[in-house]
Amino acid sequence: MSAILPGATIGILGGGQLGRMTAMAARSLGYRIQVMDPDPSCPARFVVDACFEGSWDDARAAADLARGCDVITLEIEQIAVTSLQAAAKYAPVRPGVAMMEIIQDRILQKNWLVDHDFPVGEFRNIHTEADLQTAIVALGGRCFVKSARGGYDGRSQVKIGFDETASSAETLAHDAWNLLGHRPAIAEKALDLEKEISVMVARSPNGELKSYPSAANHHEHQILAWSVIPSSVPISLEEKAQEIARRIAVEMSLEGLLAVEMFLTRNGELFVNELAPRPHNSYHASERACTTSQFEQIVRAVCDLPLGDVSIVKPAAIANLLGELWLGHEPRFDLALSVPGVRLHLYEKHMPRAGRKMGHLSAVGESPEEAIERVLQAKELL
Ligand code: ADP
Ligand code: MG
């Protein structure tokens, strides 16, 4: 297998912030970049050589992108299999189609994890309203119902049994089934979480594999609010999380990046939550914390270059900046940047909307706690 060297062209399916930051790292390494995105003014637009307009199921646009590329990668898992196959006629697609097919469907993904002996929380496959009603009872009343396809940042999900007004399982199932548009889903028992962590793994076509120290992730309303590297979990847990993430990458024959989101319960159990075959929000701090950022790493991995060192240089944290921060006034970036160790990352999105990730702040610190404190202090000043 021969490496794809700087000067070659990388194509990215998706031009959101993950594609944009990947493109910026690729440019630093001397690659040319093209992206495909439904939005011609997507965040990556400003840092790439060409932007092809096309929806995720536009196989022709995917082929147009791939024709001029030496390798294709992606920043979102919802790219249609037909688009991936169309691109694969012209350039290797990394991660590959088989892995993407499993991951982009929560039902297939969860069942794959079970079949390969990975620990997951209790769940049920849902194909009908009746399935959901049975599942709500079987899972003890409190659960998360997640569409099999298309969700992110807590979208296409319904939380059941969390409000005080007691309704029957029948009513709850009926309402949730309607909210999710009568589409296949999984229902997961709501777990009592101690902590959420993730482990990013990189693997290249030649089989080299590296996994980053785990990140600790704090969610608010099912959206990542802040994240820190390292996670500071006990060493035995870290080893377990690393072993799980690395084995998934090998058994899926990963080429590229895979983020493994995990739940640590108050009973001390470690479960896999979900897989993301691309750069991940919880590793944005790798740009500050690690010798090699996740964005440089995906470039190295898909180009079959030697993977970069993943050791920690200094603890670092990030805090997401959601659209609501823009409502009412222009955020005071001048004040936030006065906090020591803080940097600002904006994605050049034009329309701030509630829940939309517009950018993030990052901070380094002498300890993970100090990095978190600084980044949250800076965010308060906005
Ligand atoms: P998304 O694709 O939106 O990231 P996730 O399945 O990761 O979907 O859910 C988003 C967040 O919602 C999780 O990070 C966690 O905070 C919360 N959550 C999801 N499922 C469960 C569960 N079964 N028990 C407790 N919390 C959950
Ligand atoms: Mg998630």
Please tag this protein with its features.
12 helices; alpha+beta; D-amino Acid Aminotransferase, Chain A, domain 1; binds magnesium ion; 4-stranded parallel sheet; globular; Dna Ligase, domain 1; Rossmann fold
Describe the structure.
This protein has 382 residues and is an alpha+beta fold. It has three domains: 9-93, 3-Layer(aba) Sandwich (Rossmann fold); 122-189, ATP-grasp fold, A domain (Dna Ligase, domain 1, 2-Layer Sandwich); 193-381, ATP-grasp fold, B domain (D-amino Acid Aminotransferase, Chain A, domain 1, 2-Layer Sandwich). 30% of the residues lie in helices and 26% in strands. The chain has twelve helices and 17 strands. The strands form three sheets. Strands 9, 10, 11, 12, 13, 14, 15, 16 and 17 form a nine-stranded antiparallel sheet that branches. Strand 9 (193-203) and strand 10 form a beta hairpin. Helix 2 runs parallel beside helix 3 (81-88). The relative contact order is 0.12. Adenosine-5'-diphosphate binds at residues 121, 144, 146, 151-154, 188, 190-191, 193, 196, 219, 222, 261, 273-274.
